[in-house]
């Protein structure tokens, strides 16, 4: 059965017989015309008659015309043109035109936030002036006919920001206009220079991307709309810089330090989260999202940043790691720092700074909350591209740097992380700044599994050196394929090189003076424990089983693909090389887990005795019915199935295996039809089938996509009966050209935030 949803919206020009029309074409057309109209700016002044900032031409040459052609936005280290028409001829050998560029409330030549320059360049300035701008007369200038065409160059170390540009002739000074200055990855003198054009297009200019989520070997791509060139993004990002704590404490030094991408990226990582005052996003890793939206709702950055800006800088509720990272990537790309979103699967959160993650289970296989350490299914951060002369003059640590805006631990008193050189992480150089020990642990920490016995004692079951830091992923350049970059963070697991780097990292932490840590034992002891682990694992295990006394192999196998709305079916398979029968007590526990590795609900527990015969496998079916797990899993995608197996002949022989199951969402589809042109209507059709035997209520469909819609548009749908299908037609009018992504989000009582997307190439 098909359920059709239609709606007719009226605009001031006509009644449109479409399913849903989010924005009247007339309004979008006028918006587009405003963005594309002639941008020649003129102003009447006493000593010259006209100023032309050549906004459209300059912005195109500086690759900022996607942001705006109504504001002058340039990249540092690159020249831009300005034309002055004077009231009288300009005598090059006699007249002096002095110009001033200022940023911040406390401009200073010595801090590089105020520059005096001119034609000819005989302008008196401080001997210690930094970031001095330059002006030259273009060869086509005609001073005798009162036309000066100036070529102005902000140096490659200019602090980024919003500038006021003024000119003085004799005793009269006039404001010429405002401009914004960004980093410039196209020129070698800028610390963010990236030599490859395809990479610059991907990591600076692309407004769409992919963020990877999931767990272990299950990797799920999610389209993300960065939208860094949407309306008012320059104002939003500049205001964001002004809201950081360092600006409050010392605004003059903060604005001056914006010449440095190391400083700027660190500031951005702090201000994206609201753990300290003034941040954009409030984190929430619980189940109660009242007063805001669940982190899974978001599909792009612009809506979040715009909401923060328009609410007078109140934190937007709520975010988790991939949302923090997506928003930060948008800000970094807008500012001109090449940036990409990176996902680390099986990511460690080491709170006690000893490079080990301790996990405790009771005798029934239930994971306990005793340790604050955890292994997240995945964790998402960003990498920014920049030079690191603060670490080495030879460029050894230049290139990609980890910067993490998720508020996990404080760094120098503030919830921020990085920039952390990938080279330093790879080499275990945990004495270098910033935050190398924390990021090194995220991808390299060893896992220790403990049995918490009823008498209060704790028994180490095994040590696992392989689980943490898997399938480190980012989007490929120029395609939607996943690129595995694990080898840029760590050497191959199990190799002598990887173990030597781990030992070196611990030695640096113990003996270094920059970042002392509390280590539970010597590097030699940790190494000897790590080498005691047994390397035999089953093909589908998430954590390897222990082999303390007798050989026992434990593995989980999926009977069917785990999907929300359906029963979860697995098999537990136990085998041994023993030549005698063995009787075991088997405890199987199923728990709801947050993606951060914390147990938040016991779904079901089974206890049984089973006999394992020589030369045969013991197969135990595991069924977790939808009706049993549903109420626990509305806001979660992950359950952990753990087994504790005790040899009843020798109860000291205890074995553990644990498997994380990531549930996929039911399928939803989207197709687009119509002429793919700016200001021409297009139709999207979304189809969803209710897979469960209950009526879905409070059904909401949200569409977004930079260049296709302005912000988010939401449609309420009627209740959806069991085994019924909803088909929704939605009309939208693109207002930007190029490859665009249309994103869909569907929520209801039983399912939260089922997403899909499609790519549309919009022609002029």
TrEMBL record:
- Please give the cofactor(s) recorded in the UniProt entry for this protein: Ca(2+)
Q: Which reaction does it catalyse?
A: L-glutaminyl-[protein] + serotonin = 5-serotonyl-L-glutamyl-[protein] + NH4(+); L-glutaminyl-[protein] + (R)-noradrenaline = 5-(R)-noradrenalinyl-L-glutamyl-[protein] + NH4(+); L-glutaminyl-[protein] + histamine = 5-histaminyl-L-glutamyl-[protein] + NH4(+); L-glutaminyl-[protein] + L-lysyl-[protein] = [protein]-L-lysyl-N(6)-5-L-glutamyl-[protein] + NH4(+)
Keyword Transferase found: yes
Q: Which Pfam families match?
A: Transglut_C, Transglut_core, Transglut_N
Chief place of localization: membrane
Where is the protein situated, by its record's location annotation?
Answer: Cell membrane; Chromosome; Cytoplasm, Cytosol; Mitochondrion
Keyword check for Secreted: yes
Instruction: Please give the SMART domains that the UniProt record associates with this protein.
Output: TGc
Keyword set, alphabetical order: Acyltransferase, Calcium, Cell membrane, Chromosome, Cytoplasm, Extracellular matrix, GTP-binding, Hydrolase, Membrane, Metal-binding, Mitochondrion, Nucleotide-binding, Nucleus, Protease, Secreted, Transferase
- Segments forming domain Transglutaminase-like: 313-407
EC numbers: 2.3.2.13, 3.5.1.44
Q: Which InterPro entries match?
A: Ig-like_fold (IPR013783), Ig_E-set (IPR014756), Papain-like_cys_pep_sf (IPR038765), Transglutaminase (IPR050779), Transglutaminase-like (IPR002931), Transglutaminase-like_sf (IPR036985), Transglutaminase_animal (IPR023608), Transglutaminase_C (IPR008958)
Family indicated by similarity: Belongs to the transglutaminase superfamily. Transglutaminase family.
Entry's PANTHER family? PROTEIN-GLUTAMINE GAMMA-GLUTAMYLTRANSFERASE (PTHR11590), PROTEIN-GLUTAMINE GAMMA-GLUTAMYLTRANSFERASE 2 (PTHR11590:SF6)
Q: What is this protein called?
A: Protein-glutamine gamma-glutamyltransferase 2
Q: Which organism is it from?
A: Ameca splendens
Q: What is the lineage of its organism?
A: Eukaryota, Metazoa, Chordata, Craniata, Vertebrata
